[in-house]
Design a protein that fits this description.
By secondary structure, this protein is of the alpha/beta class. It has two domains: 5-22 and 95-239, HAD superfamily/HAD-like (Rossmann fold); 23-89. It is built from eight helices and seven strands; from the N terminus they run βαααααβαβαββββα. Strands 1, 2, 3, 4, 5, 6 and 7 form a seven-stranded mixed beta sheet that branches. Strand 2 (113-118), helix 6 (121-130) and strand 3 form a beta-alpha-beta unit. Helix 1 runs antiparallel to helix 2 (42-54) and helix 4 packs parallel to helix 6. The protein is globular. The protein starts with 5 loop residues before the first strand and ends in a 12-residue tail after the last helix. Bound molecules: magnesium ion (MG). The site of magnesium ion has 7 residues, from loops.
């Protein structure tokens, strides 16, 4: 390896929405801000998101709000809404139960990890900031098929994880990737060497249409981040307490 790269036996790739981040809660906070600050109603926004999700689509929040603001002819722009959304959410815990505990375990085990999230870049970054985890290395992608992304990192020997996902901002060589995500489609085409862990709702809630689908062989289903810890770090199960 050259001096500009690091190596690790295992690297963790964490999905953000509905995996470590509480996506519904982000929306609730945004709806409150929108209702308070604009002529767009909370109900209007909630219904638009619900109907996109029923169609199996990822809801483009910023685009929807910008269009709705333009249609109502108000002078309010997205930027001040975003600042208020971040400020309001930062006072709350916007992570899924046990997500913070997973970060602590990975840190104490010296396992490097980063967040790989699909969606509108500005909105994804706003949510990471709102969750107070902007310091965790992250990559926002417009490619929904994460299997394709992970295949692009595959080399004859292991994987090269891009610099954005590393605290040192250098490429990292790893033998194995552990990949957590809530959507079945995210695991399509994952290459050999990636251990897939599909995080279902931890509260026994039903899978959304966007989360459903067939999992490739070798991907393990777990209930919530607690289930992922039970599977991957069983030695910590007795000591973790959810502080969310
Ligand atoms: Mg997700």
């Amino acid at each position: 390896m050259d001096s500009n790269s690091f190596t690790a036996d295992t690297f963790f790739i964490l999905d953000f929405d509905r995996c470590i981040g509480n996506t519904d809660k982000f929306h609730t906070v945004l709806e409150e801000v929108i209702e308070r600050e604009t002529t767009v109603s909370q109900q209007q926004l909630a219904e638009a998101k619900k109907s996109a999700e029923t169609r199996g689509e990822t809801f483009d929040t910023i685009r929807y709000v910008k269009n709705a603001l333009a249609e109502t002819g108000g002078s309010m722009s997205w930027q001040p809404i975003e600042r208020q959304f971040i400020a309001q959410a930062q006072k709350l815990n916007m992570l899924q139960p046990y997500a913070r505990q997973l970060f602590h375990i990975l840190e104490s085990e010296n396992v490097p990890f980063g967040i790989l999230t699909y969606g509108n870049e500005a909105w994804q970054l706003a949510k990471l900031e709102a969750a107070n985890i902007l310091h965790i290395p992250h990559l926002v992608t417009g490619i929904e098929g994460k299997g394709k992304i992970l295949t692009g990192w595959k080399k004859p020997e292991g994987f090269i994880v891009p610099p954005a996902l590393n605290k040192e901002f250098v490429a990292l060589h790893t033998n194995e990737i552990v990949f957590l995500d809530d959507k079945a489609v995210s695991f399509n085409g994952i290459p050999e060497g990636v251990r897939g862990v599909r995080v279902e709702p931890g509260d026994g809630g039903e899978l959304l249409p966007i989360q459903r689908g067939e999992l490739p062989p070798g991907v393990t289903n777990v209930k919530g981040i607690y289930g992922a810890i039970e599977l991957l770090f069983p030695q910590y199960v007795d000591t973790i307490i959810d502080k969310t």
